[in-house]
Amino acid sequence: MKKYDIVIIGGGPAGVTCALSAKNTYPQKNVVLIRKESKPMIPCGIPYTLSTLESVSDNILVDSPLLKSRVEIINSEVQSREGKTICLSNGDEIQFDKLVIAAGSKAVMPNIEGSSLEGVYLVKKNKEYLENLKQQVKLSQKIVILGGGYIGVEVADELLKSGKDVTIVEMSDTLIPTMDDEFGVKAQEVISNNGGKIITGKSIVRILGDNVVEAVELNDGAKVDCDLVVISCGYKPNIEIAKNFDLLYEEGKGILVDDYLRTSEQDVFAIGDCAAKYDFFTSEFSNVMLASTAMAEGRLVGSNLFSIKVIRKYQGVLGTFSTKIGDTAFAISGINERRAKKRKLDYTIGYAKAVDRHPGKLPGAKAVTVKLVFSTYSHHLMGAQVMGGESVGELINMLSVMILNKMTDIDINTLQIGTHPMLTASPVVYPVINATTDAIKQWYRIQPQTEMVK
Amino acid sequence: MKKYDIVIIGGGPAGVTCALSAKNTYPQKNVVLIRKESKPMIPCGIPYTLSTLESVSDNILVDSPLLKSRVEIINSEVQSREGKTICLSNGDEIQFDKLVIAAGSKAVMPNIEGSSLEGVYLVKKNKEYLENLKQQVKLSQKIVILGGGYIGVEVADELLKSGKDVTIVEMSDTLIPTMDDEFGVKAQEVISNNGGKIITGKSIVRILGDNVVEAVELNDGAKVDCDLVVISCGYKPNIEIAKNFDLLYEEGKGILVDDYLRTSEQDVFAIGDCAAKYDFFTSEFSNVMLASTAMAEGRLVGSNLFSIKVIRKYQGVLGTFSTKIGDTAFAISGINERRAKKRKLDYTIGYAKAVDRHPGKLPGAKAVTVKLVFSTYSHHLMGAQVMGGESVGELINMLSVMILNKMTDIDINTLQIGTHPMLTASPVVYPVINATTDAIKQWYRIQPQTEMVK
């Protein structure tokens, strides 16, 4: 039986980052990473394996950083454990001093009649499965996607690129329901302009066909013919290991952890999609599953395995993410207006539109829209949504840093940022600042008399 | 004689932003903006008028935001003042309650023999002058640029795009001397690959020709033939108005102002390039002149004209800027390593390289390099330099927000950011975080025994 100082279960971004962080912090300790998938996928790259990338193999999370840091890798599945000993499906037994569970999440298959027909696929994080799906896509012409969240829309965008007839069916009234309506409407416009069909406010009640899928039936009785159905209805945390290991977990929410990602058992941590998360502002349970969040948790746990080196009062998940549909990028961090309303957060909205180059006649210029949600009384920035060109990917990270630092309207108003004709909006219309100014104007318009007290 | 509540002198980004901010904050006040240039240029867009933009008119700072906010505009020059009355060159007299000077800066003409020859140009912020230069560029083939800072390099890049034979002469050992050597070396590589010639560590002692420029002579005696010389040796603050108005100023540094940009005289403010500035970390005089800094000052003064509404302990200038040379973007915020060394700031460097898409085989992927300068004892991020694809423009703004918020290595290490295959680097190699990890590893590698105390 081999003994390791640190055992990490799971080869996705959380597990890999945690292993690297552990080796950085404790170079003398031996670390092993046990994973089910010998060729783990880059999770957010999966939609792009269907058309943009030539091969699914182009989307493998490479082993070189692990090997360079001398992290051992075992390709096997965890079956059970006894105290500090783990049994693997390959028959090996392994002892640990510290254990990190980074078991990830799995695609949800909704309870729909006909979901076991040939030609019905989930968006799984498994190389062989995706190779199969890619092959099936090539042979299909009419494709229905169930679920118009980020992944569903990304998959639709990919399939449109390869000339397929694509229909998205989404239960909510707009696409990307994690963002406010105006952003979903824009996503819908982009997909439509590229030839996609969108059915919102409807669900699929039945998948029809003999052995092979032939059509889907909606809740209003309408039928959509198709030869392939891709189901993208979200993911749920893998809690099987917690069950096996007798750790506290909540079905659907994940493994329960404290501020330092420690489970109910000393020396056992859980990170990434399999660990339960809470919202940054509202503290409610959060089903946001993001590689970047998983990675932040992996880094923290990697540093803190043997003693708490990095202090962190758990702030909850901001849920910063971005995507690109057609030629338009979309991104969000923190609270949107819909959720602010629903959770009774008193808020003030600031809006701005600009062109992301200046002057606007420069090549590559694209319109960018910023919507900010501020706390009306405490003045903190609580959330940001953006759509525009590719710079949106880092713009949302700047906004995320602002939210994390509890910046207020006035902090942002006196911000020192850089602008350049070929790279950003003009300083005069820089949309993050102008959206803040817009909010400030709403705050103070009711009290113009204050200026009389000069 | 007309009386205005607020008089702003200067129609550049500082003046315009201040006028808009004043109208937002004090909608009942009447505001006039007096400007010398009736068609003011977008300053940072000027290099792109030479080739990328069809016409110099495409680079005009438009009046529509001012007109929409009901700011009056007078195209005239300020000549003198008596108390609270200003005399203009068009004969008008104007009374003010609050006065803001946003007179900008002017291109420096070095003391070189032959600088008055035909075919010798500065990079002035004047439409007619630039139209003339653009015309001259069309007629020229061999062009020498004196000065390899941002603007010189941007002009070189533009002229190369239109097929000219371009030589840059820069006194320092590398181009863009405000950045560390490795970035200047990369800029040199980009310019060379596009056919430009670069002479560093040399200066021009003489411009040769009868009436019209024919060549330049370097300090080592070498001669470079040319039919056009563009001089880009920096800018100096316009302090003529301060002189006329009997306000405190320092030659070469600018009009002296306090934390709230108030001059030596009550009710008179100075903002933008014409106001003296100090460095964020070292407090030394800073000659950084940026539209984005000017704009931040404009917004502050606009709000604070009649009472201090926005509290701001003056933090000094970070000097956040970005540019794009060929297909590579460069950016800096805060302290670079050279200056950290020179000013005896105890520092630790973190480096990271990554690809700005993931997987790296996605179209448009470009290498990005991040160099961070941390304070060794206080652990604050003091400076950041980046080069890579176009996302660098907003990446540097995120870094600027981090510096302004005094974020430490550990704050950055536990950051929640978003990543997307089509927009950013992979979360596992996200370069801002990995450069921070690199610095952390250097800090702690000397004390591996700490981990024994578990």
In words, what does this structure look like?
The structure is a homodimer of 454-residue chains. Chain A has 454 residues and is an alpha/beta fold. Chain A folds into 3 domains: 2-106 and 236-304, FAD/NAD(P)-binding domain (3-Layer(bba) Sandwich), CATH 3.50.50; 109-233, FAD/NAD(P)-binding domain; 327-444, FAD/NAD-linked reductase, C-terminal dimerisation domain (Enolase-like, domain 1, 2-Layer Sandwich), CATH 3.30.390. Helices cover 25% and strands 27% of the residues of chain A. Chain A has 11 helices and 26 strands. Chain A has helices at residues 13-25, 64-68, 127-139, 150-161, 181-193, 240-245, 291-304, 337-342, 392-404, 409-413, 431-444, and strands at 2-9, 31-35, 72-75, 78-82, 85-88, 93-101, 105-107, 120-122, 142-146, 165-170, 197-200, 204-208, 215-218, 223-225, 228-231, 235-237, 249-250, 254-255, 268-270, 277-278, 285-286, 321-325, 328-334, 347-355, 367-375, 381-388. In chain A, the strands form 7 sheets. In chain A, strands 1, 2, 3, 4, 5, 6 and 19 form a 7-stranded mixed sheet that branches. In chain A, β10 (165-170), α5 (181-193) and β11 form a beta-alpha-beta unit. In chain A, α1 packs parallel to α7. The longest helix of chain A is centred in the middle third of the chain and has 14 residues, at 291-304. The first copy, chain A, is globular, with a radius of gyration of 24 Å. The model of chain A is unreliable at 446-454 (pLDDT under 50). Chains A and B meet through α1, α7, β22, β23 and α9 of A and α1, α7, β22, β23 and α9 of B.
